[in-house]
What we know:
With 242 residues, the protein is an alpha/beta fold. It contains seven helices and nine strands. It has helices at residues 2-5, 39-50, 79-94, 115-120, 156-172, 186-191, 206-224, and strands spanning 11-13, 16-18, 23-24, 55-62, 98-104, 125-126, 150-151, 176-181, 228-232. The N and C termini lie far apart (38 Å). The mean pLDDT is 96.
Amino acid sequence: MASVQALFTPLKVGSVTLRNRIAMSALTRNRAPATIPSDAMTEYYAQRADGGAGLITTEGVLITRQGTEWPFAPGLWSKEQVSGWKPIVDIVHAKGAAIYAQLWHVGRVAHPDAPEQKLAGTPVYAPSAISARGGKFRHIPGVPSYVTPTAVEDPSIIIAQFKQAAINAKEAGFDGVELHGANGYIVHQFLDNTANRRTDKWGGSVENRARFGLETLKVLIEVFGENVALKVSPAGGYNDVG
């Protein structure tokens, strides 16, 4: 019983003292029409804080507009989105929990015909022009699969988008951020030698393939200091990597 009781004792994580050692991981909800956090999301996170979690990690929060398989995924690149997140963060804090934003860029597993990708007016970027196998975009006519992406010429542009999203998260009141480096999304794509065939400083050796994730962590730490987490799943196999 002593080990169970320990779950309900405070724990300092970074500079934040949690009321207990119970954390809620990120769970995709798909409840943000036009990428703006909604009242339904406020209710959802309030319920989870009421349920006793010490730390809540949000669903994946897009750092830039992308045509994902989740058409109502929330974002954190605009002032409207910051304003939408503020009441969520405030109510979670009022109920005694801390909350991290999970920052997310899907890389090659977006689709150019998805409405949000069309609005973005940009290609589907990835480390290399190598398509992932699979995919099912149910909200696009014909339910297409993944396509061959465009190799991003300068990955530091995406790193800068991660930093701006962290700045926005800070403005919204989040306690910290988690970098989504798993599940075949962009950080994982750079790490994986089947998705990353670059011959510059961002590809090839393990050190070079790790560079994108490490440089992204550096800019997040510039914003949130020690209150930065990383999700990794190098052998997960999701989205055709690992």
